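Title: Prediction job returns without error message
Component: structure pipeline
Severity: low
Priority: P3
Assignee: unassigned

Description:
Job completed but the reporter wants confirmation the result is attached to the right record. Sequence as submitted:
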Amino acid sequence: MSLRDVREDITRWAGRGDPIAIATLIAVRRSAPRPPGARFAISGTGELAGSISSGCVEGDLHERLTALLGGGAPATVTYGITDEMAAGVGLSCGGEIDVLLDPYDPGDPVWHRLWQLQEAGAPSVLLTGAAASTRSRHLLLEADRSLGTLGSAEFDRRARSRVNEWLDRSDAQVVELVRGDPESAVFVESFVPPPRLVIVGATPIAHALCAMAARTGFEVLVVDPREAFLRPERFPGAAALDARWPDEALEALDLDPRTSVVTLTHDAKLDEPALESALASRCGYVGLLGGRRTQRKRREALRARGLDEAACDRIHGPVGLDIGARTPEQIAVSILAQLIALGRAP
């Protein structure tokens, strides 16, 4: 479970004065049940929250975290099939993981600010010192400010210089702030709002795609100037409905690399301005419904509008994976599957 998933338990324990220790999954090699960023936490009264694996290592982690609460030192531990504990503690899936063990300090202003940002749904990046020989430190980065320290002014400066890069992604990873220096290793977690999916065209495919994408974790916006089609009861999963023309609606949005735009109208007067606006932006994915003839005609129209071939090549068309989809629901599945396959999903 992620930090967001255990936040409520951690803050409740801290509120009543319990000591807390946290295990953080910081690296995965080969196969593992959970991605980096998963947490397993214990309180001084014996309560547990979260999970690092599917139960393979939690028993051992519980013992280590209990020792940490008893005055032990923070550490990084590795589990895997090559580990000497493989017979009893290793990962049955055949992977190898690194886990950081650290006490939770409720007085650290970094945690207080991070919880505020998560409650508000605001983006941030948390860096945790991951070098095995040092006590982990925290640095919290926002777009225009930072809080905490990694213990070195040079490390902090290097981290701040990469904040925009990390705010454009939603994963967690270990990086070396100084290449080739393992002592500069930090665990970077990007806490950003859900990726957005902008659907142009309030069509039956859009209806199915909106419902599926919202349940998958996307923030879905539906754009269509035909208000008779753009009715709230047709799109209960949408975060917003926009009845402006596509170019006006898209230009009002910050189409960042975590935004995907899919045009489903099959109508040139809606498709073309939507595609032109999307391709002129930084959005990470542009999909266009329609067969080869439609794809060719839209590209010709876009080139006539001044877009070059490289811009047109950003279009995924026909949109979706080729799975033989026929019905609106099946086509929606193919589109969502392509977004997932390309790493566009939460």
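Comment from assignee: result matches the submitted record. The chain has eleven helices and 16 strands.
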